[in-house]
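2024-03-11 09:14:02 INFO worker-7 job=invfold-0412 stage=load source=structure_tokens
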């Protein structure tokens, strides 16, 4: 149905198992599929292996692939929870971390799971002699908070040398959680010399999910582009996006390419919310109320509180261009990014098929 990640040029070693944390997640689903298709034995860490509805799609992948999958119960907030799942693994892919902007208690719902979970996984890596590499799913959110931060970066473009200095527990706590988690990871990695940390920093992830019930925040954004919420227009809020299948490939490259090291910005396109909607117009514009025009920034600013946005966020992102340098991912991970329109069409089509968005009568 959807074009798979292309692992050409990646020397995938199938002689040892790998651990994937948060294996039922949006990004992890494609990662697990790619590993299984390559013949790897995957130790899948999930909250409840007995919840067959949550893991069935991964079981189905394993049955149709040369790889094998084994499930382990693990919890981000339980110290030592990943030790059993990690036994014998050469590579650890740590993807598990909450992604939501609607929280009541940022410390409990975002910071603690991100930071304590990262510490737990990496301390287990320290205690597991077989581990040679840890691939951490961080985020561009660990690099910036608002599109306006790009202007302060070298040459006006975010690079791997830039760190987020503007997020806090009170403002954009999700970004703050990613910053603290990645800082924690580097502190632990730098204190030892047996295994190597390689970090993936994606922008907003788009594209189809392998899970029939995707929960990623990006699906909420794309749903609003087609359900009439933004029919009168969409804000030109600057952001970057990357296809989830390209991101899965990047993780596998980071795990297996001998020279992969450091941070890697994974972002296929510098864009904005309105442009994401316009990418859907050729295929879906005649049947769905997809936004065609930009909402004026003053109007977005006035309406921000009723839409659950802060006016500070509007000031720093709407009408502000977002730019990042993805050159390192191209050079060192061999990334070739698929077209924005393909990613958006595949993602929206999935929402149509599920009935999440309905065509006009």
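2024-03-11 09:14:09 INFO worker-7 stage=emit residues=361
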């Amino acid at each position: 149905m959807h074009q798979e990640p292309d692992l050409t040029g990646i020397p995938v070693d199938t002689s040892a198992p790998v651990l994937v944390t948060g294996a039922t997640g949006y990004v992890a689903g494609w990662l697990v599929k790619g590993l299984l298709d390559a013949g790897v034995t995957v130790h899948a860490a999930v909250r409840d292996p007995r919840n067959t509805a949550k893991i069935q799609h991964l079981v189905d992948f394993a049955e149709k692939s040369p790889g094998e999958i084994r499930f382990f119960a693990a919890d981000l907030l339980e110290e030592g929870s990943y030790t059993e799942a990690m036994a014998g693994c050469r590579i650890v892919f740590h993807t598990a971390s909450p992604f939501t902007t609607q929280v009541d208690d940022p410390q409990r719902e975002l910071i603690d799971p991100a930071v304590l979970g990262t510490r737990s996984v990496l301390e287990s890596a320290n205690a597991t002699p077989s581990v040679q590499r840890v691939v951490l799913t961080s985020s561009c959110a660990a690099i910036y908070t608002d599109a306006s931060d790009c202007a302060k970066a070298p040459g006006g473009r975010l690079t791997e040398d830039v760190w987020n200095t503007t997020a806090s527990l009170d403002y954009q706590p999700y970004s703050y959680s990613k910053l603290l988690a990645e800082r924690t990871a580097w502190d632990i990695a730098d204190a030892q010399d047996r295994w190597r940390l390689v970090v993936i920093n994606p922008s907003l992830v788009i594209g189809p999910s392998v899970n029939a019930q995707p929960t990623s925040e990006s699906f909420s954004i794309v749903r609003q582009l087609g359900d009439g919420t933004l029919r009168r227009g969409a804000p030109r809020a600057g952001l970057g996006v990357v296809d989830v299948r390209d991101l899965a490939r990047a993780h596998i490259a980071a795990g297996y390419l001998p020279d992969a090291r450091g941070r890697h910005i994974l972002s296929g396109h510098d864009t904005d919310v309105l442009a994401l909607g316009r990418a859907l117009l050729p295929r879906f514009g005649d049947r769905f109320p997809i936004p065609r025009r930009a909402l004026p920034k003053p109007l977005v600013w006035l309406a921000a509180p009723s839409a659950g946005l802060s006016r500070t966020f509007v000031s720093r992102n709407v009408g502000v261009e977002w730019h990042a340098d993805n050159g390192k991912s191209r050079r060192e991970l061999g990334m070739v990014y698929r077209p924005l329109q393909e990613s958006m069409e595949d993602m929206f089509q999935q929402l149509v098929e599920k009935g999440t968005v309905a065509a006009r009568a």
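2024-03-11 09:14:09 INFO worker-7 stage=report msg="The longest strand covers residues 196-202."
2024-03-11 09:14:10 INFO worker-7 job finished
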